[in-house]
Give the backbone structure.
Amino acid sequence: MRVELERASHKGWESWHLRRGPLELVLVPQVGGRIMGMKWQGLDLAFTQPEREGIVEHVGRDGAVRARKRELGFPLWGGDKTWLAPQSRWTDELPFLDLDSGPYDLAIDQATHERVQVSMVSPVCRETGMRITRTVVLSSSDDEWRVIHRLTNASINEVGWGAWDVSMVARPEHGGTTRESVSAGQSGVTVPGRRKDVRK
């Protein structure tokens, strides 16, 4: 099944759409490099906070990043994103502004009808010195998609962070993901009145 890549818009944001048959992934680099839509046969499984749809935060580049972060609070943008773990080490108990709400650069690494690979790269976080790269891969030969998380320490300090993939799913849908083909977990998405198989 061929793979397609298209630039469009999604809920007021500029977006890139990766499609393969009934599957569509919607990338929004403007807001924390997120997969803001995960659609199966037109049904979007990703949650987005309606009050924040289409909003792009201007996080600024001055030194008052923590004050700006406290002013913004804990926005539930939704979608699928990468956070730094552990959460217990977050300053002010809030996600890092540059990584969670800031704009990421987007690069198309490969775009053929057999395989599309797109990378979204964060700015260097002013609080941690970290940079996040999220690479999304969709291929015609697989029945899944991949998200590759890469953390880069751009500071001179030793760090101890891990990548934490977080997805916010719309309710009342129920989903299961399979880590390996031998997993005992249920695979698929259940919607009231019908069942659709989706793998991530």
